[in-house]
Structure formats: C-alpha cells, structure tokens
Design brief:
mainly beta, 287 residues, 2 helices, two-stranded antiparallel ribbon, 58% strand, 22-stranded mixed beta sheet, single chain
Length: 287
C-alpha cells in the first residue's frame, strides 16, 4: 500500500512537471482569449486573438500566422510574433519585457512600456507613444517608425530603415548598411558607424559622431560653421558647432563631436535637395 502511494505521488509530480513546461493556453482558428491572471506561456495560431488586460500576465507568448495580441494593462515577459502576426500595445508592460517581431509581423506601440524590442526580416514597428527602457533594434529589412514616445537606444542595423519624426531618444546608433531619416524629435547622441546613410532634415540633435564609412546628409539652410569646421565643396571636415535653420525656419545647432576621415558629412542646402531628387528620378527613368 505504501509503495502504491509513493508511486502515485511520483506520477502526480511528473504530471505537474510536464504541465509546467506546456503552454497555459493554445489558440487556433478564430479563437479569442482575455488574459486577466497569471500564465506561464501562451501560443497563438491562424487568426486567433488574445488580449492581455489589467492584472494579466504571460511569461512567454508566441504568435504565428495572422494572429494578433493586444496589450492594454497587463504585461508579458517575452513576446515573439512570427509570420504576419501583429502586436498592439496601448498600456501596461514592464521594464524587463522583450518584444521580438520577425518575418512580416507588425507592432504598434501607442503607450505602456517594454524593456527592448528586436525586429527582423520585413517586420514593421510604429511607435507613437510609450517608453522603451533599453534598445530598439532593427535587422534585415525591417522598418522602425518613431513619431512619439521615448526610446533609449534606437539601433537600425543590416539594411533596416528607421524613420524618426517625433519622440525622443538618448543614444542613437545607426549601424550596418541601414538608412535613417531623421526629421523631428530629439536625440542626445547620434552615432553613425559601419556604412549607414543618415539623412537629417529636422528635429534636435545634441552630438553627432561620424565613424567608419558612414554617410550623413544634413539638409537645411543658412548654415553657420563654427571654429574647427571646414567646408570642402559640400563635404564638412573637422569638428565643431554646426548651426543653421531647417526648411521651416526652425533654428538648430549640432555639435560635430567626431568626424573620422573615412566618414562623410555632406551639407545639402536647398534647393540642392530638389536637384538631387530630380537627378535620381532621371536615372530611374533611364533605367
């Protein structure tokens, strides 16, 4: 009898162990689920939908296919969105959570907070508000759009594109062969390393660090060149304070803190920009 009790206890312990590593919920087809309590893990497939509400928590959440996740008060530890799935976050979150989006996935962040976000393949993230405590990284051909909120360290890499027209960031690092279009918002430190292209036409940048074979275009008017800066054609050499106005008349100044000889900082006064666009269109028509 005692042996049976021991055996039964061992079986129960084994089942508890197995249950602890399985997902707390699986969703398929058009199934929907609202998370209002604590869950270790969840999996979404097909066109299923989950909403993480206030009081809800999912340690690890995976979504595939065309499924969607809404975060509006609760939080997650790690969220992986694959295929063409989508994530919409309006509130909630915690500083240590990690959002990973791959393939053709989409994330829309309009509030709340996460620790970091990683975007791969052809994924897209749109940030209009909220707080990203650490890094926002783009890989592959992903697109990172920032129109508001705060991102501590935006980092486009590979062939990704980052468009920033609002919001704020502390440490901005353009890497790989990425493209950055900065037209608004504020950045404390902008680093261009490897071989990225950085187009600056608005907003506020405190310090610019140009490294390696990076190319930075500064598009504006009424440029003023501080001590230490020399203009060679349209190429800016040296370090110092560069100031001027954006095309809407807003005054600005950038401290060119580092400007390596292999890097290029190009001054593009209007109407040269229109001329460049015209030449680009002519080349496309010829092709």
């Amino acid at each position: 009898m005692e042996k049976r009790r021991i055996f039964a206890g061992a079986v129960c312990a084994f089942l508890v162990l197995i249950g602890s590593v399985r997902a707390d919920f699986f969703l398929y087809s058009n199934q929907q689920f609202s998370v209002t309590s604590d869950h270790n893990q969840g999996d979404l497939h097909d066109t299923s939908y989950v909403s993480i509400l206030s009081g809800g928590r999912v340690g690890n959440l995976n979504s595939w296919g065309y499924s969607s996740v809404d975060v509006s008060g609760g939080f997650f530890g790690n969220l992986y969105a694959w295929d063409s799935s989508s994530v919409n976050m309006s509130s909630g979150g915690v500083w240590y959570s990690v959002l990973n989006v791959s393939d053709y996935g989409t994330a829309n962040i309009s509030g709340g907070s996460i620790g970091s976000g990683n975007f791969y393949g052809n994924s897209i993230v749109n940030i209009s508000d909220g707080y990203i405590d650490y890094a926002l990284r783009g890989y592959g051909s992903s697109i990172l759009n920032i129109t508001g909120g705060y991102v501590d360290t935006p980092t486009p890499n590979d062939y990704s594109t980052l468009n920033m027209s609002g919001g704020s960031a502390y440490w901005f690092s353009a890497e790989g062969h990425s493209t950055t279009n900065f037209s608004g918002g504020s950045i404390d430190e902008l680093y261009a390393v490897d071989s990225p292209t950085v187009n600056i036409s608005g907003g506020s940048i405190q310090d610019l660090h140009a490294h390696d074979t990076s190319t930075s275009y500064i598009i504006g008017q009424n440029f003023q060149y501080g001590s230490g800066l020399v203009l060679d054609g349209n190429r800016l050499l040296g370090t110092g304070i560069l100031s001027g106005e954006w095309m809407n008349g807003t005054p600005w100044s950038i401290n060119i803190l580092e400007n390596e000889s292999t890097a290029i900082i190009q001054i593009i006064p209007e109407p040269y920009t229109l001329l460049l666009f015209g030449l680009g269109g002519l080349l496309i028509r010829k092709r």
